[in-house]
Amino acid sequence: MDAEHLSRIGRLQAALAAAGIDAAFLYTSVNRLYFTGLETSNGLLLVERQGTPIFYTDFRYLEVAHRVLNGVEIRKFKPAKEQLAEYASMGQAWRAVGYEDTLSVDQFLPLQETFAKAKMVSVTKHIGDIRAVKCAAEIDAIRRSAAANDALLGDLLTRFRPGMSELEMLRQFRIAEAERGLTESFDPIICAGVNAVECHHQPDASILRPQSELLIDMGVKVDGYCSDMTRTLFFGDPTPRFKEIFGIVLEANAAVRAAIKPGMRCCDADKIARDIIAKAGYGDYFGHSLGHSVGLEIHEQPNLSFRCETVLQPGMVVTDEPGIYIPGDVGVRIEDLLVITETGCEVLSHTPHEIILPC
């Protein structure tokens, strides 16, 4: 573990102390990875508000844990009843025990029974707040991930052509991704023609026709960090209707990029795009939030939604993805990846917004 991971644990311990939580049980692999730098399929990071954290794992990962982890105590899991008894012995004085919202019932109930006299408190928001502000190394990884995503889309645009099905385009995506040694950060969304009105359409046998649009929402991972970008392009001469809707969405996207900055609430960033689309008469067709945070996971805290009053800070990485989806007509989404800077934002997505390809 390097200084950054130890600092993250320190920030978590400070958050636990401020919230009056005695200890937190971190079961999810992504949180263990974030706080230790070690990714394992099985494990637990037990963090008390003071003292040395304990990293539990099974036989498979003990050697690597001892080799790469410092600043934590490493223990092998015991059989379930013995393990719970160990937790109970350690936590006799605990009055508040932290857990992650993503725990399964099988994981949560034994903890609740073990600490029946303590209050069970979610630490998901505390962890999300810590993970929301990226360090320089994380931003660099996301920047490289976005660059790889740009390059991958550039490759795909030489492969996609009218007559292909969405499933064939998905196959080409997988081939190009593998050729570049990349893994995706989520299943790509590929929408030919009118399918673009479905925000999260799953690729099917629909054919890309000449004189029609194609929406592709895609991302890859570099050093574990995700990227995310959407482009809506047109094969042939764009129709007046497509131009109209595309222009409104691009205006909303650009307005957010120009205005977003630290100190702004997430809901206010969302309002910038929402007001532009509503003024154009299409407010009812923009049914999702403006964006979300991105990091080790494709969806992190905070969200750029009308409900979220979280204040943006330098180092946060968010998406700017307004859209208009008119059933049976036209669907357009434009998404860029942004990192909040001291004065505004840095745009990490560099693929042109307006892409017109020959039939």
From TrEMBL:
It comes from the Bacteria. One of its GO terms (biological process) is proteolysis. The keyword Nuclease does not apply. The keyword Protease applies. InterPro entries: Creatin/AminoP/Spt16_N (IPR029149), Creatinase/aminopeptidase-like (IPR036005), Creatinase_N (IPR000587), Pept_M24 (IPR000994), Pept_M24_MAP (IPR001714), Peptidase_M24B (IPR050659), Peptidase_M24B_aminopep-P_CS (IPR001131). Coiled coil: none annotated. GO terms for molecular function: aminopeptidase activity; metal ion binding; metalloexopeptidase activity. Residues 8-133 form the Creatinase N-terminal domain. Residues 141-342 form the Peptidase M24 domain. Pfam families: Creatinase_N, Peptidase_M24. Keywords: Aminopeptidase, Hydrolase, Metal-binding, Metalloprotease, Protease. This is Aminopeptidase P family protein.
